[in-house]
Amino acid sequence: MSSQHSAHGASSAARGLAAEDQWPDPAAGALDRVVDAERRRAAMEAEQARLMDQVVELRRLEASRAAGGRAAGNIAAGFAVDELAAALAWTRRRVEARLASVRFVHHHLPQVWSGWQAGLVDAYRVDVVVGAARLLVDPEHVRQLDDAVTAIMGECTGGQLRRWCARLLARVEPGEAERRHTIAFTDRMAATAQGEDGMGSLWLTTSAVDLAALDQRLTALARGLGADDPRTVDQRRSDLATDLLLGRAGAGTLRAGSPEAGRRRPVDDRTTGIRLVVTIPWTSLLGADDAPGDLVGGTPLPASVVRALADAPGTVFHRLLTDARGQVLDVSQLGRFPDPPLRLATQIRDGTCVFPTCSTPAERCDCDHTVAHPDGPTCWCNLACLCRRHHRLKQHRGVSLEQLSPGLLRWTLPSGRTYLVCSDPVAEPAVPSAGEAGLCALLALAA
Ligand SMILES: [Zn+2]
User: Fold this and answer.
1) Residue 445 Cα, ligand 1 centroid: separation in angstroms?
2) Dist. CA 406 → ligand 1 center (Å)
3) What's the CA-to-centroid distance between 204 and ligand 1, angstroms?
């Protein structure tokens, strides 16, 4: 029995535990395998990143030889990134970030690169180190970072590593911190993202000083609403920030202890001058059932939220006729440029750019003729939303795009791989039919 004791059993004995605790610990064995799997995962990430770079370089070489120039090679290398994104179902930005990391670490951080290949550190933490190393202006400091970080990176979480790197940067190049703040301030931004359950988030990037002041002000305003306000502090802060940004400050919802304060509606009828496109079955709008609506871009909204929006003054409805699968029936017109209703209908159908991994909102896309006009008609069946980048990609050598039926598109990329993209139904199928309703999902999976 003792011969089966592992190192874990021996250390238990050393701590003077009872005899029954000295048995081999199956959880410890499983934990060892977890650690081993993590190490292999990290090493495979390094291998995958190296191969991704190889794909790009092979595309670059192939194009610069065929077309005889560096410019052609660079264009092909750029589109190889889209090819990788589609093959991996990653965003383009994620592919670019991984490529940038592997190139940097390979050339400038040899010890970190060895550690990554050995699985001592994963891509997430390599990205943190690369992000810090890129900020150093003196190559000698990059070498110092490579030496020092290798000793600790395997034992740090990403957050710990980020703070460790920030301290090292401040120590070795203090003058740069001032300059970076000035530059970073030009990158301030406010971004929104639609979430789940009819909710969404706002990210605001501004100076640390303004943000601290903003945080204090929100808290002070939230507290100022009084102890009678039934909302939590988080709810009050969210309501206050929303009202202030939408110019609704000073209205009823901000009054301390107002009886309606805790019954705030998710849609406020004082939201004006903003265009939101929402689709909802007619029956649901009339209250005959509670089928959900959709904020264009694919965010489902509860029927009650859409009805509240419909009640708001200034809301305009367009009627879209859909078939049994919920797809909008054909809409066509003469001429090259789609008129606003046809363009709007195409945007509503597609929601985003129709490249497999792109999420550029349809209203920021070109309304592209899949088959160029005048060979292809200006119709629902031949229009699709493409962002500028993927509009250009469509014209690249080895790329083709077909619209098999309205909203169902097939991309063929230079590798010969094909991807089917299917717009979500604009409305729930009128007559639920397993065969028909399942068709879109099945086709999407076949990609
Ligand atoms: Zn796109």
Assistant:
1) 20
2) 18
3) 24
End residue of a domain, out of 139, 159, 185? 185
Distance from residue 373's CA to the centre of ligand 1 (Å):
21
Burial label, 296 (beta-carbon count in 10 A; 0-12, 13-18, 19+): buried
Place of tokens 């809301």: 315
| pLDDT tops 80 at residue 313 | no
Ligand 1: centre distance to CA 392 (Å)? 10
What distance in angstroms lies between residue 419's CA and the mean position of ligand 1's atoms? 14
pLDDT score for 38: 96
Q: Are residues 58 and 155 in the same domain?
A: yes
Strand partners, 401: 411
Q: Is residue 303 part of a domain?
A: no
User: Which pLDDT does position 361 carry in this prediction?
Assistant: 85
Cα-to-centroid distance, 356 and ligand 1 (Å): 8
Give 402 Cα–ligand 1 centroid separation in angstroms: 16
Looking at the chain, the whole-number percentage of residues with pLDDT higher than 90 is 39
Could you count the other beta carbons within 10 Å of the beta carbon of residue 8?
18
Q: Which domain holds residue 163?
A: 26-185
Residue 260 confidence (pLDDT): 43
CA of 355 to the centre of ligand 1 (A): 5
The DSSP call for residue 263 is: G
Average pLDDT of the chain? 79
The pTM of this model reads: 0.62
Computed from CA positions of residues 395, 396, 397, 402, in that sequence, does the dihedral angle turn out positive or negative?
negative
**Crossing angle between the packed helical segments 139-152 and 123-133, to the nearest 10 degrees:** 150
Query: Is 219 strand, coil or helix?
Result: helix
Contact assessment for residue 291 and residue 303, using Cβ atoms and an 8 Å cutoff:
yes
pLDDT in tens, 186-243: 999 999 888 888 888 999 998 877 887 888 888 888 888 888 889 988 999 999 999 8
Residue 120 above 90 pLDDT?
Answer: yes
